[in-house]
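Notebook p. 47: complex prediction with alpha-L-sorbopyranose.
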Amino acid sequence: MSKLINVGMIGYKFMGKAHSNAFRQAPFFFDTPLTPVMKAICGRNEEGVKEAAEKYGWEGYETSWEKLVKRDDIDLVDINTPNSSHAEIAIAAAENGKHILLEKPMAMNLSEAKEMVKAVKKAGVKHMIGFNYRKFPALAFAKKMIEDGKIGRIFHFRAVYLQDWIVDPDFPLVWRMDKKIAGGGAIGDLAAHIIDMALYLAGDISSVSAVTETFIKERPLPEASGGLSESAGKEKGEVTVDDAIISLAKFDNGALGTFEATRFGLGHKNYAVIEINGSEGSMRYNIERMNELEYLSGEDGDEQGFKTILTTDATHPYMAAWWPPGHMLGWEHSHVNQVYHLLDSIAANRSPEPDFFDGLKNQAVMEAMSQSAQDGRWHDVEKVEI
Ligand code: SOE
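Predicted complex, structure tokens below:
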């Protein structure tokens, strides 16, 4: 019988639902060394959070996050709130000795992220950032293949992240389009993910240049706040974040990178595609086909061509816990794998991965991209202290 770990979650909408499901499923599929007890979920709207607690299977609920992070019966705090509250909540959770799982992007800016790192270091708690795409078996397997030398020296890291949910100018101005709450637009919402994949698979980024654009400057204000799909009211408000970003990058290891992220990629729903070209091989991966990793080996001579590796065998990362080969995984399973990894790391007294240090590096890249988009120059990425 594994030991118990008491969990408190803040935020109960889109990501709160995904993470609640993950805490329920993780001990069902994995032999978790710690069994999560879903103590309390927290949100400002009492009716909404009470309903979420009952539906998702939490023992109780809170309407004050300040109260939740102080509760003696909570060991791990999972933060799924809009970006503007990440720093304040994470720092308070650390000060109260709680382990932390935090949704991406880490913070509103680099200086906030640095304060958060200071707080978790001082408190000695475990910390993890919800870059859940690392937890797709195919991406974790790509990492292993790269470490095994299957790509060789990396020359190019190419990434696009395209969604289309705000192409309609009448789509309401939800919090993700408000700089005061989101910090940035496509950059923090989408580019953060492909930057994380780059840091994970290709290494640190040394300098960047970027352009951004806001295509629709005003939108109807939503009738209610939260989620991705609120209904539009009559009044309009200003969109204060980027709708799209395109960036060039240089890596420390000499590789070159390109990043494009937009929520105006009509026809693309969650199209995050990366391609890596190296001296020994190339790789391609598309989140919309998340079980498949494409690989080309330079050794294949005139039989060269991309092959598709279906990463659903028990030998692929995380897969031994799931279904037989070919019984596909979906987006929510990456969150379950993430929770398993977090619990395993806490039990083994090891830092989970990606942790706040990875989040800080990611934030430094986004900061340099934002600066470049403002002044039109190349910017070095700050070498952050971890
Ligand atoms: C919305 O654009 C969003 O939900 C992101 O916020 C998530 O991080 C990504 O996984 C899917 O798209």
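Notes: The longest helix spans residues 356-375. The chain has two domains: 3-132, 133-329+350-379.
Next step: compare against the earlier run before touching the bench.
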